[in-house]
Design goal:
By secondary structure, the chain is of the alpha/beta class. The chain folds into three domains: 3-73, Winged helix-like DNA-binding domain superfamily/Winged helix DNA-binding domain (Arc Repressor Mutant, subunit A, Orthogonal Bundle), CATH 1.10.10.10; 86-161 and 268-308, 3-Layer(aba) Sandwich (D-Maltodextrin-Binding Protein, domain 2), CATH 3.40.190; 163-267, 3-Layer(aba) Sandwich (D-Maltodextrin-Binding Protein, domain 2), CATH 3.40.190.10. It has helices spanning 3-15, 18-25, 29-43, 59-83, 99-116, 129-138, 184-187, 201-211, 225-233, 247-251, 281-300; strands spanning 48-51, 54-57, 91-98, 120-127, 143-147, 155-170, 182-183, 192-194, 219-221, 239-242, 255-258, 260-261, 266-274, 306-308. Strands 3, 4, 5, 6, 10, 11, 13 and 14 form an eight-stranded mixed sheet that branches. The chain has a two-stranded antiparallel sheet with strand order 1-2. It has a two-stranded parallel ribbon with strand order 7-12. The relative contact order is 0.15. One of its GO terms (molecular function) is DNA binding. This is LysR family transcriptional regulator. Residues 1-58 form the HTH lysR-type domain. It comes from Undibacterium piscinae.
């Protein structure tokens, strides 16, 4: 198996056509088709099939595509690590961030990187926590912002912040009343709009509920933060989440966030990287900047409800 075969295969999947991929790769289509056949013969599996929409990856092809992308990225990082200067780091760095943390951290980090390290190509991905873990493990990401659930032993981890979770409703919601805080038992009496179990926050909430000897009531599962916000604004229920995804709505007076009394409900935000893949100079620069930006956001109060662990 050759690196060029991986590049060819990724291009075919990305473009959905042998002819388009051949044009982009500057090779003739029969040669590209031959390399795909050699790759399939070596793997003993069909990777692509033709459909009315063009060339599409088979189930085996989808799995191989993820690995091919990760391998090509690691080769690119290795070349960049040899070539780049420590004084002026350059290259590509990929960071994954969960939907529920991106509101607080994504834009400040992006702005700081553009100002301090303009030669670094920064790829910021917003995904569910479970997807980020897999992408970090296979090497598609250099870093991921994850939440410490006691199962991060396979990664290098640096705690960034402890973020409180609060009871959040529409400002005039029938589920909030005029309270200044709410007990966990009372919060559970409302219909709760929560991310699915794939989301890093949900298991933490359910664990705290069990520890308190309580039971979850009605739960509306919504994975998308945008749709979850819409459901809250429609007063379909309340949520228990960190404040960061709702900062804009709270500042505009559209939503309210109440502390949950009698229980410590928070999550530890962690910066993770692979134990097996060395970090380039560019990645090390990004790592340092993530720590600086996080500390500044917490110290200034701009990351509401978060306390720095740095």
């Amino acid at each position: 198996m050759e690196l060029r075969q991986l590049r060819y295969f990724v291009a075919i999947v990305d473009h959905g056509s042998l002819s388009r991929a051949a044009k982009v790769l500057h090779i003739v289509q029969p040669a590209l088709s031959q390399q795909l056949q050699l790759l399939e013969d070596e793997l003993g599996a069909s990777l692509m099939h033709r459909s009315a929409q063009g060339m599409q990856a088979t189930d085996a092809g989808k799995i191989f595509y993820e690995h091919a992308q990760a391998i090509l990225k690691q080769v690119h990082d290795a070349r960049s690590a040899v070539a780049q200067s420590t004084d002026k780091p350059s290259g590509t760095v990929a960071l994954g961030i969960p939907q529920s943390a991106s509101g607080a951290l994504a834009f400040p980090l992006l702005a700081a990187l553009r100002e301090k390290y303009p030669d670094i190509v920064f790829q910021l991905t917003e995904e569910l926590t479970g997807h980020l873990t897999e992408q970090l493990r296979c090497g598609r990401l250099n870093f991921a912002i994850l939440f410490d659930d006691g199962q991060l032993g396979g990664f290098n981890s640096k705690p960034l912040a402890e973020e409180d979770m609060m009871y959040i409703t529409r400002a005039d919601s029938r589920f909030a009343g005029k309270r200044k805080s709410i007990s966990l038992a009372k919060a559970l009496q409302s219909p709760l709009i929560l991310p699915s179990l794939q989301h890093g926050v949900r298991p933490r909430i359910e664990s705290k509920v069990r520890q308190a000897g309580l039971q979850m009531g009605e739960v509306i599962d919504i994975t998308s933060i945008a749709i979850l916000k819409s459901a809250i604004m429609a007063d379909m229920g309340a949520t228990i989440l960190p404040v960061s995804p709702f900062l804009a709505e709270i500042e505009r007076g559209e939503m309210r966030a109440l502390p949950i009394s009698g229980v410590s409900l928070s999550r530890t935000v962690v910066l993770c990287s692979s134990k097996n893949i060395p970090l380039t100079n560019a990645a090390l620069a990004v790592q340092k900047l993530v720590l600086e930006v996080t500390h500044d956001l917490c110290a200034s109060g701009r990351w509401l409800g978060a306390q720095s662990l740095l």
